[in-house]
Task: structure prediction
Amino acid sequence: MKKLILYLTSYLLFLNIYGQKEDYNWIIGNDSLQLIHFNASSYTIHAFNTDTPIRLAVTNASISDSMGNLLLFSGGAAVYNNQGAIIENGDTINPGIVWESWHSTYPGAYGAYNGALFLKSIQNNNQYILFHLRGDTVGNMPPPITDIMYTTINTSIENNYMVEKKNISVLSDTISNAGIAACRHGNGRDWWLIAREYESNCYYIILYTSDTIQVIHKQCIGTDDSFIGAGKLFFSPDGSLFIHHKVNDGVEFFDFDRCTGLLSNAQLFETTELIDVIPNEHLVSVSISPNNKYFYTATEGRIYQFDLNANDLVGSRILLHNRDTAVVMNYVFGAMQLAPDGSIFISGGEGFHIHRIANPNEAGLACNLQIKIPLPKKGSAGLPNFPN
Result:
């Protein structure tokens, strides 16, 4: 009987996961907006509402319904519907001097790397929550982050979505610009969210349940970070690993307990030898294959694959693409993001192309790295930030 109950529980959880298509639409664009639309095995890219003045930068979030239809997106400064219009009360997300300084030049955009993501409400099927990071000073790129906030959106009224609560603070502190990451709790219902304290080795671990959104732990583990552009926080596809990509220092891996929200077994994978070949080259993005076997890194001009199951992680590296020139300002690659078709997309440093690892579960060149897929208009450095 116990085996039958376990089987039925696993089967129902599989059906729930299989039906989710919340990440099927990505909005990008720094010249005019473009839509990358996915299904389970393919994608299309086309222009999206070319008349809008909206620009997206490194803050980027979107969410679709269970059928894969776009519902909402945000560049960190406002919340938009699927036509690119600001929803009721959806203006002035992250208010303050950073919002004001960006708005005149990049309407709709915000400068917090991976600084927003949408979650569907646990207690209300017609409600969505935007978690977002707010900065309060200018003069640096990216701006220092001072608040972790959330905003709730009601979608029960057809064609008239409305922000109900806006810019509610979860935590005020100096926060790293490594963004915010989310992973499903081990109970299959609640969510963990993690952000990092600025210039320290401490992580704020937030629990979102049907009753509350609150900081559960401040856990100090691993190494400090010395660079203001602090990379990215994200989870492996199976949720067992939490990863902090550091622009200068390497990539730090942690085991993650999805029941307690605690990090353990910190291991720093130093990438100095990968980024020092050319002066001032940085590790700009990282990602993990859907089968959790291969780890990908991109500098401004090079892409490597590593085998996470190898005894010698550094020794397992395979160079997939070398920079086209020795010129330092050869910015080819930007953010990486795992896509719903099982591929990994990489934003283009110069904006007019996007790149794709079509088969990231395969070793070496069989992963099929596709360089410089043309975009209809200039893209953006950021790609949407999704929960695990």
Q: What stands out?
A: The first strand starts at residue 25 and ends at 28. Helices lie at 2-18, 97-103, 272-275.
